[in-house]
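Kindly review both lines to help learners:
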Amino acid sequence: MQLTSEQIERMVIPSDYVLIKIDKMFDDEVKFTSGFTLYLDPSWQMADHVRVYGTVVKVPQKLTFDLNRKNPTLEWKTTLYVWPGDVVYMDYHSVLMALGKKADKGIEYAHDTWISDEKKNLYILIPYSDLFCKMDSDWNPVPINGYVLIKEVEEHWQSKNIILPGNIKSIKSMKVGQIIVGGTPNLQYDNPRYTDDIDVSPGDFIIFHAYANRRMEYDLHAKMKTTLSAVQMRYIHAKIEDFDAENFYVQFFK
């Protein structure tokens, strides 16, 4: 959609979506400290190269959480934590859907919720629920939407003697990670079996649902100091006590 900068300035978003300005659709080059620049073809594996951060331009007048609403935009009750000027990280799939056929003419079921102004600035409308975090003034992430940021633990823990409660037979379908940055819990979910009322803190080793982690950014284009994944607290099943011990006990929350 083509709009003027004045029309964008007057735009009002009633609920649940955020207007975000992105400098470019894809990160298509990698600069090395030697001064060498590698140019990429982002049409190959677009999910790895689509720009996943941007600057908030407009926020919704409200966030709508309604248990009786069909196909809700928000599946949880939370508070609006971002404001115009904030830099936010968002789900790569949501960005691709917003860019739609502007990014890939062959894409199916695209939302095409992009806007361009007369200066060729590019904006996308993204559901607030698809934001992982905002960045503070020192470029440190501040998780929102019930997320914590973790570093996955992929090696050596499976060889240990894991002491499970009697009602838990196996954790083979789960993953282990360490919380690096804690987040603000969501207040309620549309599914009553979910809750963020768990006792976890940065530094804790956790067990979470195998498919719950969401990649923050592709390593090749990473701007954060550490490669992190986002996991909502509702998908954290347990905390590991004394992870460095030869035998460790797993404390399940639910």
Summary: The chain has two domains: 1-138, 146-254. The helical segments are 5-10, 46-49, 92-99. DSSP finds three helices and 21 strands in the chain.
